[in-house]
Amino acid sequence: MTEELEIDVRVAKPQDARAILGLCEQVGSETPYLTFGEEGLNLTVQEEVAIINKYNKAQNSILLVSEVDDQIIGMSNITQFNAAKQRHIAEVGICLVEEYWGYGIASMMMEMMIEFAENSDLKVITLEVAQRNEAAIKLYEKFGFEIVGNLRKRLKVEGCYLDSFVMEKVLD
What we know:
Elements (H helix, E strand, L loop, with lengths): L6 E5 L5 H14 L14 H13 L4 E7 L2 E10 L8 E8 L8 H14 L5 E7 L3 H9 L3 E12 L2 E11 L2
Parallel strand pairs: 4-5
Antiparallel strand pairs: 1-2, 2-3, 3-4, 5-7, 6-7
């Protein structure tokens, strides 16, 4: 693709549930670095609708989708921890259809999630990333995330174990 993409990043709506589940099946088949494979999230549409509704009611969590030509091609989320003494922390996640890697869409989503976190009660954003996923690590470092830990044998892909880094960004 060489043409200019018109990208829309917006808050997920309940009617996106089926497309989000399809997105997860697609990206799960394209990269070994997610916690799910081509089976996707193994949720029903109704279960995904409930998850979207929960995000939309939450004060310090958000679920975003990225669209090109009215097709959902990516998603990102920031999810506040539930424990009373950890409610200042949230975990972030991003997935994007491989065809759209390299267009700055993941950066756009990350920017929006960080802005959301900065305008909330959150003080720390954390994530887990496979150590071999150099592109993602580079993206996270670009946005000020630092490696703070190592998790061994975190993913099992085709009989091989992959280690992960824990990364975090402390907000001012």
